[in-house]
Structure formats: C-alpha cells, structure tokens
Design brief:
Elements lengths: L3 E2 L4 E4 L2 E4 L13 E4 L16 H35 L32 H8 L3 E11 L5 E12 L5 E4 L1 H4 L4 E6 L4 E10 L4 E5 L9 E2 L10 E6 L8 E16 L2 E8 L11 E4 L3 E9 L2 E2 L2 E2 L4 E5 H14 L6 E2 L2 E5 L2 H7 L7 E6 L4 H5 L6 E5 L2 E2 L3 H8 L7 E8 L2 E8 L1 E2 L27 H9 L6
Parallel strand pairs: 11-16
Antiparallel strand pairs: 1-2, 2-3, 3-4, 5-6, 5-8, 6-7, 7-10, 8-9, 9-10, 12-13, 12-15, 13-14, 14-19, 15-16, 16-19, 17-18, 20-27, 21-22, 22-23, 23-24, 23-25, 25-26
C-alpha cells in the first residue's frame, strides 16, 4: 500500500501514522515515529418507526375531549356567573340564599251564617274561640281501701254565650271536679248540669258571659265525601289542634261498651282527648260531637276511623239537659226483654230465631197497655226490622215519650201488630229493658232468675215440676 502524507508531520501507512516532524527545540529525527491507529467503525442510523393509526387517532381524540371539557367548563362557569349577576347586584364571589318576597296571607275571621264557604284556616279562626279543653278529676278507692285520684282530659264546645258547654258523658262521668280552659287561656271551675250515657252527651256550666258560641248545623245534610274538621285536644296535651278528613259514612251503627250508637264515620285523625269536641263542616257549623275512635279491631290495628254523634240526634237531648238537668222524655217500653237466638227458638218451640224476646212487662206500663205478653217476639218497630236488643235500643233513641209506634210481634205461630205509646223513662231506671240472666235449665246459664216458675209453667205447662 502506498503512503501519502496525512496532515502535518504525519504519513499514513496502512493502519499506522508516522510522525515525521521534529519536536520543538529538537533536531529533525532521522527515524520516523510510528503511532498505532485504529480505524473508526461505521454504524448505520436506526430506522425511524412510524406511529400506528390507533395511537395517532387516540391522541387526537383525547386532545379533542380535553378541549371540549375545558370549553364546557368555561361556558358553565360563565353562565353561572351571568345568572348570579342577573339575580343579584352583589359580588359574584358571595354565596347567596334566595328568599321569597311574598308577604303572609292574613286569615279573615268570618261570620258563620250557613251560606259562606270557608277555607280550613278560616274555619279554624272562626270556631277555635268556641272550643274548650276539659280536665276532670275522679276520686275512688283502691283494693287496699285507700282513696286515690285519677285525671282525664277531653274537649268540648260553647253552645251559649252565658257559659253552657257540651261534651261527652264519658269525659265527665263520675268526676268530682271539672275545669274548663278557653282558647284565651282563661280557666274556670265547671258544674256538671247533667248527662246521659245512652247518648254519651253531657252539659257543663261555667260562670262567664259574652262567650263566643258555636253555630249548630244539620247532620242530615252531610254527604259521603264532604270535608269535615275536628278541633280539640288530642292526648290532653296538644291543645286546640285541628285535623281534617272526609265523611266516610253518614249513618254508621256501632256498639260502644254494649251501648248502640248511630254515628257519623270520618277519616279525620281523632285520638284520646278529642272526645267531646266539635265536628265542623266548611261552613263553620257544628254537625257532630266527636265521641269514639276504634284504634283496634280484635288483634288488627286500624287507623283512619273516627266517629261523631250526629247533631240532629242529640240537639233536643242537649236542650232537655240544659232545662231539666237530665233527659226527661226518653222513650220507655216498660218491658224486660232479650235478644232472640236460634237455640232459644229451638228450646221454646218458636219458629222465629231473630228479634227481641219479651220476658215480662211492668204492670200498668206501655208494654202491658199495648198488649205485649211473655213469649212475644218483637220483629219490627214501624217499618224498621228488629233483630236484637241493640237494634231495639238504637231505634228507640229516635222517639220520645208520648210517641206512638206500631209493633210487629210473632205470637203463637203468626205475626200480629200492636200499637204502643212510649212512657217516659223513670229517673231510677238506669237503662231501658234489660235481658235477665239466662237460666241453666234447660237452655243454659248459671242460676235461676226471679219468677223462674212462671217461665217453666209457660213452656212446659202448669205443674211441670210435680
């Protein structure tokens, strides 16, 4: 290989450089210096890899979405800022609570005239000053012979401006002291004028004047679906509360502790303490006296069932108590009777199994004058069917002493009719006709009643025991 000069003082020969230049201050070398040289290695550049379609597209989509999100956020913030600025002139950075500028609606106390339809709020404002809270105290003796006191609470309403108040009989029954509190907060000692358990009505009197009395309406004008309101003192603590409902039934026959009642059934919320309060329509008229609530039936809990005594059924009773201290003209048949049953019909050899069986009549009384006899079965009073003593008692409430009715009676295998004019119930008579305890011979019972020989003579003939 030929040598050629490569730079200053060096000669390339093969893979070596030969230094031919002398060092500074040195004489020229006669023998050239040989330096080893390694040739550089050439490396080809790495090929550039082209990005895939999906990677390029994903990046673009991500960028697009990020751009949209940023733009949307800016738009939302701007819109909210504009809305806040339009609602208020205050600074955007201040948190504001929107407050309505509508003023309160004043409730007008309207005059109850029977023609003006009112809202529930107007009814309450017009009637609440006539409602009272009643607290009664009863003294009794416990099993150890010690005197104890018990308290109960109820409701009532003012029926006259001079202090007569109507409530339920069971609210003040046996009370030794009664206090009445008005809506204004004034409290009065009340006197029990009188009451009647058959109608569950009582009248109280307080020494006051210029009171706001209720306006009575007609319960016969009620229809199922009419809105009614109850104002009273539920639980004896939630005083002067109002609940609203509709009439569920206008003429519901129920039995309360053995006493039959004709009631207005409502679905307004009625609880202990409401008893004796007014049931009011949307004209502000009192159409009933809240009296009973079924909170359970057997083991089933029931809600939405309230009852009120129809005002038309007791208005004359209330007047009678106010004037006489008691009900003086209660219809009285002067008989002793009981509910007819299938077993009694089979034993007595009577084909009728429903009605009221006459055990005896009071000498000189309405039943004897009408011609009733022992063994008769009363099946109708006028056109109303009678199947039990409860139904007889309920029907009699619609009549007064002196009224005349037609009795349908089953006797000796046929039906006959007898006219009967009711007597006035004696003051000493606690209840109307009572069913005597059934004898144990041969139709059940535990003891012999008075006059049992007459019963046996009637069914088995004279001298049955000889």
């Amino acid at each position: 290989m030929t040598s050629e000069e490569y730079g200053y003082g060096y000669t390339e020969s093969g893979d070596r450089f030969t230094n031919t230049a002398p060092s500074a201050g040195e004489p020229a070398r006669s023998t050239p210096e040989t330096v080893a040289y390694t040739a550089p290695v050439y490396h080809a550049p790495a090929p550039v890899r082209k990005k895939s379609f999906f990677r390029r597209t994903g990046t673009k989509v991500a960028a697009l979405l990020l751009t949209v999100a940023v733009v949307a956020g800016l738009c939302g913030y701007g819109g909210a800022a504009l809305a806040a600025r339009s609602d208020s002139d205050e600074d955007e950075s201040v948190t504001n609570v929107r407050q309505s500028s509508r003023g309160a609606v004043d409730v007008v106390v309207k005059r109850v005239d029977g023609n003006t339809l009112m809202t529930p709020a107007e009814v309450y404002a017009s009637a609440v000053n006539s409602v009272v809270s009643i607290n009664s105290t009863t003294r009794s003796t416990n099993v150890f012979g010690q005197p104890v006191e018990s308290a109960s609470a109820g409701s009532g309403f003012i029926i006259t401006s001079d202090g007569y108040i109507v409530t339920n009989h069971h609210v003040v029954k046996g009370a030794t002291s009664v206090q009445v509190t008005l809506y204004s907060g004034e409290t009065y000692d009340a006197q029990v004028v009188g009451g009647d358990s058959d109608y569950d009505v009582a009248v109280l009197k307080i020494k006051a004047s210029g009171l706001q009395a209720v306006t009575l309406g007609s319960s016969t004008d009620l229809n199922v679906g009419d809105t009614v309101l109850s104002i009273g003192n539920p639980l004896g603590e939630l005083t002067f509360s109002m609940s609203q409902g509709i009439v569920s039934c206008c003429d519901r026959a129920i039995n309360v502790d053995g006493t039959p009642f004709n009631m207005i059934q409502v679905d307004a919320s009625i609880n202990p303490g409401n008893s004796g309060g007014p049931l009011v329509n949307l004209y502000g008229e009192v159409v009933g006296i809240v009296s009973a609530k079924y909170s359970s039936y057997s083991t089933t809990t029931v809600e939405g069932l309230g009852f009120a005594i129809p005002m038309d059924d007791v208005q004359t009773i209330i007047t009678d108590i106010m004037e006489n201290g008691q009900v003086t003209n209660k219809a009285y048949m002067a008989i002793t009777a009981g509910t007819m049953t299938e077993s009694m019909g089979a034993q007595y050899r009577i084909d009728v199994t429903k009605g009221v069986f006459v055990f005896s009549t009071v000498p000189g009384g309405a039943g004897e004058k009408a011609g009733l006899k022992m063994g008769d079965v009363i099946t109708k009073i006028n056109d109303t069917k009678i199947t039990s003593m409860e139904e007889l008692a309920a029907v009699k409430k619609g009549y007064r002493a002196g009224d005349t009715v037609t009795l349908t009676v089953y006797r000796d295998g046929e039906y006959i009719t007898l006219p009967l004019t009711f007597d006035a119930q004696p003051d000493t008579t606690g209840q109307e006709e009572q069913q005597p305890q059934q004898p144990s011979y041969p139709w059940g019972g535990s003891q012999y009643p008075d006059g049992w020989e007459d019963y046996f003579d009637y069914f088995y003939g004279p001298g049955w025991g000889n």
